[in-house]
Design goal:
Number of helices: 26
Largest sheet: 6 strands, antiparallel
Strand content: 5-15%
Length: about 725
Amino acid sequence: MNRKKAAEGQETSYFHSRIFIRLFLSYALIIAVFLALYVGMYLTACSTYYRSAAERETQQKAASWATVMDRQLLAAQSVCAAVNTSENTRSILSTVYVEGHTIDAMQMYRMLNELKRIKGASANMNVYNLMLAFTGDDRVYTGGSVLAVEGESQPLTESPYIGLTTVSRLLGVRNTSAMVMNKEFLIYADDYTAFNSNGAAKGTVLVLFEQSGLKTMTLSALPGMAGARVTCGEDVLLELGGETEHAFAVESMVADELVYTVYADAKLFAMPLTVSMLLPVGMLGLLGLLFLGATYLFSKRYYRPIDNIGRMVESSREHDTTGQDEIDGILEGVRSLIGERNGYRERMITITPYAKQGMIQSLLSGDIEHQQLEVITDERFVGLRKAFFMLAVVNVAAGEMSVQQYRDAQELIAHACRELSSEEHTVVCCAKNAQNLFVIINSDDGEGMEALFYRMYQTCVEALDDPRYAVTLGVSRLESDIQALRDACADAEQALEQMMTGGRSSVYFHEDAQDKAQRRYFFPRDAHKRIVRGLKEGNLPDLEAMLEEIYRCNAREVELPLSELRLMVEELHVTIRNALRDVFDLSTTHIQIERIREAATLEEIFAYYRTVLATAISRREALPDAGEERALEKALCAYIETSFCDPELSLNAVAERFGVSTKMVGLICKEVYGKTFLQCVRDLQIQHAVSLLQTTEDTLEEIALQCGFTNLLTFRRNFKAVMGMNPSDYRK
């Protein structure tokens, strides 16, 4: 009994032994160092990932802003080209500087109106003015006026010219009374050659940009940024905010020396310590406590043989009544114990806190070195080096656009697609024609490639940043045989044909019976109609029931791979976004829906979309009543009926003035007048022209100008389309 009590008392006194403490602390130190290293690596990885994500986002903002600014230069180039091809300006040049005659009033009137029309046709709100100066002339022509200057206009030393200066300084002339000549503008200037065969400069075309408008556009394109700067060589053309150490520069795709630089605040790259980020650290702390408990058990186990020896020696000293023989027996017992517990001794000596970790290296199979395959048109070639690929046809449609405008849009899309290239996925682009672009995604792993095409679609839309363009993707099946590239092209074009029933501005994948059978996630076919109906009726329970059905069928009843779940979430996002557009497109209320980009559970994702639908219903219930809509309709029609003679009147201008969509303006015109907006304005102009023809002796050119037509030819064509005869015949 006494021996048992002594043993129980010994269980609680292990930490009084320095041997046990050292043994325990050696294990504990190993665990603590391991956990500290792991926590440090985890926080470092989180900080690096957050910083990289912030840098990528800022770089994307800088690229988007650069695209917006490049459009200003493209608009200026288009204006200069229009002036060079103008017959009216060429007529002035021929009359005065070739034939030596005096310009008559009608020639001057036509040229000034031509400059005004070209400026208006650019549809660029940042273009302040358009000017034309002939070399050696003491006059400068603008849209609607002629400015006399001191001295003669000098040709450009280099063209095209981009800089922040005054018109007087650039042309080497002087005019103290005209503000437009002495105020600093961001000027794009190019030679006026009248597209002569010898290409010699006959003058200079100047496009003046208002700095305030460009700064406002920059602030809108770069929210939250510390500053921005546009430089051309060593010259600073536009500057907002201040400089920081985080600078993101993007070279212009239009002008070689033009560089756009965005400065970001350092706090954007500082990782916030959130609960979700610190949760793994807390879990590691709990795991460390469990390891400490296990360490105590192991230490006690390996310490017990030494403890038994110590207790035997102490017991022998307390009961030493048999003399030397007893001592010899104890020593023999000790030797026997050491022999029996030799395994403990060996493990105590040879145990090490280090573990060996190997690395698994995999080789890419199916590599094809320097193999090039012809891609449909233009005899362009691409090289594929990895095993899997998918091909897409990117279609761009924008109504009546020139071939050059389509090519510019295609260039922006190709650049945006190439930006998606990474170590896992290689992106190759090849033009089919002006409106279609082949894009190949090539990878050594087929996972995640379909989701990448949805990202590609969004990237293309953001790169164009123009509602006039509709981007549609047709995507082939996943292929592993490079010889099937031609078949993949045909599959992609067949997938693109689905826009006949599905509409534009979407992503279509090639599907056959086998492909449909392999799609395992559940999604209702009438989901779009149910969401639209639920939003219009304010039936939130029905929408929540549909979301619960999708979640239950995909997350509770079946076990789907991550790639399937991602595609299901993407389809849900696109469906809800399209339904919101259908419901709110004709109102001033807009519901912003963003993808969840950070890590989240399915429960969190579906909760987010429930909140979006609930917010949309509440916003719809708060829309203006019928009385307010009637007042808006009345004010809009009154504005059209009083402003139809304004040459600047357009569908976009009316929509912007009243804060509604262009589609809503068109519907109001259809409902009130039974005509489209353009037909309504044209008929009002022709009615006014009829009145002037009957009551005045004004010339046809004067009447055309008074009715809002920019030239006599357009007036005659529209008059005959409405009245069935020419205006001159009508006056007779």
